[in-house]
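FAQ: What does the model actually see?

It sees only this:
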Amino acid sequence: MSDFNKYCKEAALEELPSSEDEEDIGDEDTCSAQDLAAQFQLQYKPQDECSVSLQRDYVLSLSADQGFNRVAVGLSSSAVHIYNLDAGSGKLSNFSFLPPTESNAVSICGVRFLDEGPHNILVGTTDGYVRLYDLRLKGEQARFKYTQHLSVAPVPKSISCFDRNANGRIVCCGTNQFHSNVFLVFYDVRERRQMGVYCDSHEDDITSVRFHAQNPDILATGSVDGLINVFNVQEADEDEALLNTFNTESSVARLQWHRNVYDKDIISCITTTGDFKSYESEEGDEACSFERPDVTAAIRRKNASNFNLIGAHNQEDGEVFLLAGTNFNKGEILRSVSVTTKNTLQPLANFQGNKQIVRESLYDSKRRLLITGGESGIVTVWSQESSGSTVVGDKLKVKKEKKSRKQAPY
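And it is asked to produce this:
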């Protein structure tokens, strides 16, 4: 019996509370359908979509290899599905399945491809492990877990987030608060060893760690304490490593790196209250700031209490767009707005046919494909609508898993 079939038949996972269970609070567009079509000039439809689980699992994490030919999907059950994405058709096909941990209390806290290729993948789980898999082989190839040092206060056995650096050499894990301390723990991937910890720069749960996409030594971290810290991880001493600190005066939910028109590094932040802020990482200046009602109005919706800011993505021309939706009518509304050079929000795209409250997203700027996952366990590939586009029907398919994790020998 395959891992997937065994999982589906034997798993007895408790159903997670869902935003979709909540009673909808009234909401509507602020303009007519004709005005919407005129303002959101890009129209997207599902190119392909599938349900990743027979259980009620959330999609909590998405990652793609550099060529955007393979996509990893991390679930709330701690299982991971890996799909091949056809470059021409935008269709998903099953490639591999990594089963969940034995404990029902463990969830995914991130999935990341280790390097430029599509074979090596890191899977972080809330029980404190980051596991390395080679998808050409069976079983995990390495496991990273904190080892206590006498010089450092006790570190929790769980992690909340992780990332790897640009050359795939270092993994950094963030923890929740434990005995009034929070930690950034570093591992050397090649030598399979722990390198050290930072433990003084945050005062509450660490919610996001993001290495710079090109510079392997630069790391941004965000926390419930509202701070965004930028480090040079070449420095072993934490005080010397800390390059800059930004106070969002809120609680950080997720971070992303961008590059502005002046070729300067920008760090964007989505807060837990649905605000968007960005900062020039070197100068320390705030680049722009939009509160929850601002973005709600920009996607042409009335009720900010239903609003859900999902992600900030880089476009091919260097501009940034925000993907946003609402919890109204099980997440039916999904739209994007671009952040202009004048620091205003401009309607960009309308995504028609959304079936869930979206929690995570990926964007391929070259092909202009968006991939979303959310609370109904659906992975959707969105493409810009054209006369020859293919639209998936209302009936979702649960694709049959392959029994082997191997694609081909070396």
